[in-house]
């Protein structure tokens, strides 16, 4: 990836824009993925520069915990708080109604818990993540308890989905989530009713959580780039 890689420029710019919305004395959900990683870095930069202080983060993954430690952002847990002021997180697809597919990094279960508890959930994406209809470019991740992988795949096939077990890269065998579970990625020809599908999938015994986020996001920050100049649009 070159220094002027347009996707990198867009991710950095939305990360910076999201970090700029963090105020002193707030509790912030820290999402997962390459775009949110920039937001965490820029929050750390603002803390270091003294622009903000007294921030506490709630991590959505081991990756977020590691980044928070790297940038000296103190962390807390959901046992210690009732709510968050803000959550910042990426997405794999965003539709015009601000509904999302998440879980490209297998973190969607903890992300849905944290992002749902925030007063304001800000999504940070590059413009390539915008779709007219969810499921058109990205397979839908479903986290499953390991002993239930086969029956869940059969149940998903009966619903019309094409399931595949997510395999590791630079690791033999399946991807294991931060909770010790596996991920089934599902191709649906068409997702007409995301809310209904979200509930139907979660109702299959053995499914922990799927990557459909319906009615959770408040603000979408979209990174765009033209002539190597990045900008951010909000909706
Ligand atoms: O499980 C991972 C998350 O849902 C990520 O937020 C999502 O995959 C987007 O990641 P990235 O910003 O790297 O495209």
From TrEMBL:
Function: Catalyzes the reversible conversion of ribose-5-phosphate to ribulose 5-phosphate.
Gene3D superfamilies registered for this protein in UniProt: 3.30.70.260, 3.40.50.1360
Protein name: Ribose-5-phosphate isomerase A
Active site: 111
Binding site for substrate: 32-35, 89-92, 102-105, 129
EC number, as in UniProt: 5.3.1.6
Subunit field text: Homodimer.
Keyword Isomerase included in the entry's annotation: yes
Keyword Isomerase on entry: yes
GO molecular function: ribose-5-phosphate isomerase activity
Top-level taxonomy: Bacteria, Bacillati, Cyanobacteriota, Cyanophyceae, Desertifilales
Top-rank EC class of the record's enzyme: isomerase
Keywords from the named record: Isomerase
Pathway(s) the chain acts in: Carbohydrate degradation; pentose phosphate pathway; D-ribose 5-phosphate from D-ribulose 5-phosphate (non-oxidative stage): step 1/1
Catalyzed chemical reaction(s): aldehydo-D-ribose 5-phosphate = D-ribulose 5-phosphate
Pfam families from the UniProt entry: Rib_5-P_isom_A
Family membership noted in the UniProt record: Belongs to the ribose 5-phosphate isomerase family.
């Amino acid at each position: 990836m070159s220094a002027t890689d347009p996707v990198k420029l867009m991710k950095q710019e939305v990360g910076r824009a999201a970090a700029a919305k963090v105020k002193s004395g707030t509790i912030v959900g820290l999402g997962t993925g390459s775009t949110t990683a920039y937001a965490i870095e820029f929050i750390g930069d603002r803390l270091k520069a003294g622009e903000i202080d007294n921030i506490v983060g709630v991590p959505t993954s081991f990756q977020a915990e590691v980044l928070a430690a790297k940038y000296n952002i103190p962390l807390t847990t959901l046992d210690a708080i009732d709510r968050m002021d803000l959550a910042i997180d990426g997405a794999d697809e965003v539709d015009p109604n601000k509904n999302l597919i998440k879980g490209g990094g297998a973190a969607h279960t903890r992300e849905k818990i944290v992002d749902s508890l925030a007063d304001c959930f800000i999504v940070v994406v590059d413009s390539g993540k915008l779709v007219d209809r969810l499921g058109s470019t990205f397979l839908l991740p479903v986290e499953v308890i390991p002993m239930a992988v086969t029956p869940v795949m059969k149940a998903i096939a009966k619903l019309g989905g094409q399931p595949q077990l997510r395999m590791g890269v630079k690791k033999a065998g399946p991807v294991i989530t931060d909770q010790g579970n596996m991920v089934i990625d599902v191709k649906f020809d068409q997702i007409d009713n995301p809310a209904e599908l979200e509930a139907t999938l979660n109702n299959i015994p053995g499914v922990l959580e799927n990557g459909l986020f319906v009615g959770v996001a408040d603000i979408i920050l979209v990174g765009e780039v033209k002539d190597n100049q990045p900008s951010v649009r909000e909706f």
